[in-house]
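Subject: for your reference before the review

Hello V.,

The reviewers asked for a structural picture of the protein, and I figured it would be easier to keep everything in one thread rather than splitting it across files. Below is the amino acid sequence we used in the manuscript, unchanged from the supplementary table.
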Amino acid sequence: MRDLLLALDYCHRECKIIHTDVKSSNIIMQLNFEVTPSDFNPKDHETFEFNDKENGSCVITKAAPLGNFPDGDRLDLEWWRKNGRFKLMDFGVACFSDKVHEYPSDISAAALRAPEAFIQADWDSSVDIWSTGLTLFHLLTAHPLYPDGLDEKLLYPLWMYLVFGKFPLPLLEQSRIGGAWFSRETGLPHEEYMSGLPNDVLAIDELLIRLLELYGRPPPSQELLTFMSRMLV
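And here is what came back from the structure prediction:
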């Protein structure tokens, strides 16, 4: 996270650029030592035969995921500071911070999009920090925050309400379409939506604790919960 936040700070402060697509697949790792794929203990390749009427049969080999990291304690932060760095890549959909008004609001993947962008309110570089917070959640749990298959134009803002609470009223006042989901007076979903929403959705910090417990991992520290929650405001 340190390297990613330093990269974003440089983009936002020095370059006046908003990345708009922060996600785990846009973070690459640079190692300060030579490695080969065999150093990562790759798992056995899985193969299967494919029969095609026109071209005959062939054997297809699936890509094998890498195993453990090579030499070095993966939990030794000082070792990683000396031997590895993480870098932010793919600025293909980045925009200049003074050109936001010319940019569409459907930035980033829907599951990582900031609330203000979803409801077409004013947005700025803080959308990158929101995406970073949800990326951190995904890296910690290997689990998406929202269920698969949500209707992007209808259900995501409602699930944000369930997980994070009411949308701030000033944000709804700025929004061009927020009134479609929420009352601009109370910030609550309209009655026709309330009756269909589940009542057992966990807040993000509770969900993180449950998932780590499920995977047999130690609970998150209060510092981690605070760090993540500050990115998701």
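For the response letter, the relevant points are probably these. The radius of gyration is 21 Å. The first strand starts at residue 17 and ends at 18.

Happy to draft the paragraph if you're swamped.

O.
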